[in-house]
């Protein structure tokens, strides 16, 4: 009954395409700044080098896999698969990369604290590119144009004579690499991390194109009812539910629709995903990585981002918590959730509304207390309006 009354007031408020003043401010917090990124033809040497690495297949283990195999530019930089295939299969859904630079932790479990360090892991894991830092460095060295892009960005290229074929194979260090003098390894690792910085510089240019929702926000900012009316009424109702009854905005907020934090939403995963510890394991991996922001290859060992990493503590309540994904470009990034278990947006909404295939969430986990994820019991019409709204992002 309470829900019905609430909805009745919401309906009256939502009649106005500009929505009530009190909501407008909250909605304008979701606005993106006009991002001006270089067009590919104006890329800096650093961005060009990053772009080449991102799309190159030659240095991968099977010679036919690249970052773009899973992060397909035609699909908002993801692959539409619940268990993506690199050189082998992996059990997490591929996130799209539009606006990825706005995150503060990367990966579903946040096991990377910078975009540049993220880029290094898939190069060497057997499931993804099954390649290696030495193979990649040789691939740069062999081509004068690529080598020049490196030198223009970072200065001297490291010596590559007298090196073993690989540094890592099947997730293990090779004996040949371990025998190299420490200084030599550091020099190679520094160049490897620089290549990560090149990829990150390219990834910063990946931004979702303007959407109906962006145009609606502009109309609200200009208080222009005529423009605002072009935004479908169902989506406007959906937006109201997103802010109000659905409590979605508690976690999905800001221009990327993500608080950048980790929550247990009570999702029940099956198969290999059911043992996924999420943030709990992610913190351990991050602390161990020589390429985290506190490590010797970081250029920002002090500062707010490094402090966040320094302050991290592992806590059993983080078991099964995953990073709130951004929701931009959502209509193109099915399937959904970290295990790719929901094929479409309607099933995502049923998960929240009816707690379909969900377990109760222990109270107090995460930052807001996951009481926020109680059944919403929306009507089928309300569920459909929420979907219409999400599609406009
Ligand atoms: C086999 C498919 C596959 C390949 C190949 C691959 N990725 Fe990914 N990528 C994924 C998956 C799956 C995740 C989620 C990983 C996780 O959370 O554990 C991911 C996560 C990411 C993220 C973090 C996104 C976020 O929202 O936090 C970035 C950035 C990224 N990949 C870039 C790359 C780059 C750069 C390469 C090439 C060097 C690459 N990926 C190769 C599947 C792939
Ligand atoms: C307590 C924080 C929280 C609340 C409240 C919340 N979400 Fe989420 N949302 C998350 C997290 C965390 C995930 C990732 C869960 C996972 O994959 O295990 C997620 C995933 C999603 C996804 C899948 C995105 C993708 O790329 O896979 C969608 C869509 C979504 N939420 C929409 C909503 C809507 C709509 C609401 C309100 C009805 C809502 N969320 C409420 C935290 C929240």
List the helices and strands and how they pair.
Layout: H1 2-14, H2 21-28, H3 45-55, H4 67-70, H5 115-124, H6 133-141, H7 144-154, E1 168-169, E2 172-173, H8 175-178, H9 182-203, H10 212-221, H11 225-228, H12 233-243, E3 262-263, H13 279-288, H14 304-311, E4 322-323, H15 345-354, H16 380-391
Antiparallel strand pairs: 1-2, 3-4
The protein binds heme C (2 copies).
Order of helices and strands: HHHHHHHEEHHHHHEHHEHH
Taken as a percent bin, the fraction of beta residues is under 5%
Number of helix segments? 16
Label the overall shape.
Answer: globular
Instruction: Name the bound molecules.
Output: heme C
Low-confidence stretches: none
Find the CATH topology of the largest domain.
Cytochrome Bc1 Complex, Chain D, domain 2
CATH architecture classification name of the largest domain: Orthogonal Bundle
Work out the radius of gyration.
23 Å
Class derived from helix and strand content = mainly alpha
Number of strands: 4
Number of self-contained structural domains: 2
CATH class of the largest domain: Mainly Alpha
Largest sheet features: 2 strands, antiparallel
CATH homologous superfamily placement of the largest domain: Cytochrome c-like domain
Strand order of the largest sheet: 1-2
> What percentage of residues falls in helices of 4 or more residues?
25-40%
Distance between the termini: 31 Å
Mean pLDDT: 90
Report on this model:
This protein is mainly α and 393 residues long. The protein has two domains: 2-37 and 209-276 and 320-391, Cytochrome Bc1 Complex, Chain D, domain 2 (Orthogonal Bundle); 42-103 and 113-203, Orthogonal Bundle (Cytochrome Bc1 Complex, Chain D, domain 2). Helix content is 40%, strand content 2%. It has helices at residues 2-14, 21-28, 45-55, 67-70, 115-124, 133-141, 144-154, 175-178, 182-203, 212-221, 225-228, 233-243, 279-288, 304-311, 345-354, 380-391; strands at residues 168-169, 172-173, 262-263, 322-323. The strands form two sheets. Strands 1-2 form a two-stranded antiparallel sheet. The chain starts with a helix and ends with a helix. One heme C (HEC) binds at residues 242, 246-248, 250-252, 263, 265, 267, 322, 324-325, 327, 330, 333, 336-338, 348, 352, 368, 370, 372-373, 376, 386, 390.
């Amino acid at each position: 009954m309470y829900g019905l009354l609430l909805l009745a007031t919401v309906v009256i408020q939502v009649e106005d395409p500009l929505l009530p003043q009190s909501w407008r401010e909250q909605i304008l917090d979701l606005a993106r700044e006009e991002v001006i990124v270089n067009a590919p033809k104006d890329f800096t040497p650093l961005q060009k080098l990053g772009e080449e690495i991102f799309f190159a297949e030659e240095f991968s283990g099977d010679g036919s896999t690249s970052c773009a195999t899973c992060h397909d530019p035609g699909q908002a930089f993801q692959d539409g698969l619940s268990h993506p295939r690199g050189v082998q299969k992996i059990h997490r859904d591929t996130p799209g990369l539009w606006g990825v630079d706005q995150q503060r932790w990367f990966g579903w479990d946040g096991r990377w604290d910078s975009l540049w360090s993220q880029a290094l892991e898939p190069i060497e894991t057997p499931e993804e590119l099954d390649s290696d830092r030495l193979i990649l460095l040789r691939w740069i060295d062999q081509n004068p144009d690529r080598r020049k892009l490196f030198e223009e960005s970072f200065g001297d290229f490291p010596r590559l004579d007298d090196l073993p074929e690989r540094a890592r194979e099947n997730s293990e260090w090779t004996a040949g690499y371990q025998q190299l003098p420490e200084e030599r390894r550091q020099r190679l690792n520094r160049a490897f991390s620089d290549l990560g910085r090149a990829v990150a510089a390219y990834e910063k240019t990946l931004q979702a194109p303007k959407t109906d929702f962006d145009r609606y926000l502009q109309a609200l900012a200009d208080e222009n009812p005529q423009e605002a009316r072009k935004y479908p009424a169902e989506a406007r109702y959906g937006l109201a539910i997103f802010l109000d009854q659905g409590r979605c905005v508690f976690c999905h907020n800001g221009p990327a629709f993500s608080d950048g934090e980790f929550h247990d939403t009570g999702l029940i995963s099956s198969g290999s995903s059911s043992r996924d510890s999420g943030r709990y394991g992610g913190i351990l991996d991050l602390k161990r990585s020589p390429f985290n922001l506190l490590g010797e290859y970081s250029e920002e060992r002090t500062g707010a981002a490094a402090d966040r990493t320094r302050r991290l503590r592992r806590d059993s309540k983080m078991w099964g918590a995953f990073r709130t994904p951004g929701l931009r470009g959502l209509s193109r990034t099915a399937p959904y959730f970290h295990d790719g278990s929901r094929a479409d947006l309607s099933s995502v909404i049923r998960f929240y509304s009816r707690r379909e295939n969900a377990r109760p969430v222990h109270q107090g986990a995460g930052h807001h207390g996951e009481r926020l994820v109680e059944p919403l019991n929306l009507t089928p019409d309300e569920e459909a309006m929420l979907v219409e709204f999400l599609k406009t992002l």
